[in-house]
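During the no-cost extension, the postdoctoral fellow (Dr. R.K.) reprocessed legacy sequence entries with the updated structure-token encoder. One reprocessed record is reproduced below for audit purposes.
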Amino acid sequence: MLANLKRALDNKGISLKAYAAFLNVSEKTVLKKINEETDFSFPEAKNTKTELLPEYDISYLFESDKERVS
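Re-encoded structure tokens follow.
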């Protein structure tokens, strides 16, 4: 799961429905992307960082929980 992305969207009050509209995809598709069932395209990731969440580092936003070592 991309928990950092979900947390950042929540912190800015951006709903998954609004984020889906921003990406021009369905809410179901956004959930699949955040849950890492499907990948974000480079333009989707870039636009998310530059237009919605410029205060965050792109590596932080799209860091997978699967990659974390406890």
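The radius of gyration is 11 Å. The helical segments are 3-11, 16-23, 27-34, 42-52, 58-61. The remaining legacy entries will be reprocessed before the final report is submitted.
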